[in-house]
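>> received
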Amino acid sequence: MKHGKKYTDGAKLIDRSKLYDTTEALELSIKTATAKFDETIEAHVRLGVDSRHADQQVRGAVVLPNGTGKDVRVAVFAKGDLAKAAQDAGADVVGDADLVQKIQGGWMDFDVAIASPDMMGFVGRLGKVLGPRGLMPSPKAGTVTMDVAKAVQEAKAGKIEYRLDKTNIIHCPIGKASFGMEKLLENFNTLLDAIIKAKPSAAKGQYIKSVAVASTMGPGIKINPNKVGSGSAAE
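>> returned
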């Protein structure tokens, strides 16, 4: 794979054989974010579980204390008083059957979907559309709830969902390069603490196998998996 000059220059700053401390890795990720836009810093966490087994799934949501730096567009499936509550909380679009039809017609201009429980009969029809994009409302992620106003506020404040992919890796944004190391570290520790807390009882051996951070256009930087999270408890 050919990389551009900026990526190559950034890669020269990183020792591929080294496991960095979190603060050093985050500082390097900021230093290698040299694109003309404010790059997102992402965390990639490989877990010692098998996502093929239901009792080893790791999924949840957490509000990053400093947000993600992204203007999150929120769609809410609700009606009546709950629809009004969602609008008052700042939802970008609110609807019921009409919103389902709009999405079935190809409209996808949102980042988070929230639904009241009574709407899931309608929303279930969108499984093939929303599921592959990770947008399907879920009770576990707190996006199927009677308190739609709180869900909207949290989404706008920087709530992110974490879940295993097929290779047992969790990929999440932890902020923008412009945040600086301290804010990114606070977000990173919040995410890792949540992942550690979500360890399935069926998981055996080392839980956090590897951790890396990278900017949108930059190289990956490996972090010592035994020294992550505010408690540094990765076992």
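>> Helices lie at 5-11, 22-31, 80-88, 97-104, 120-123, 127-130, 148-157, 181-197.
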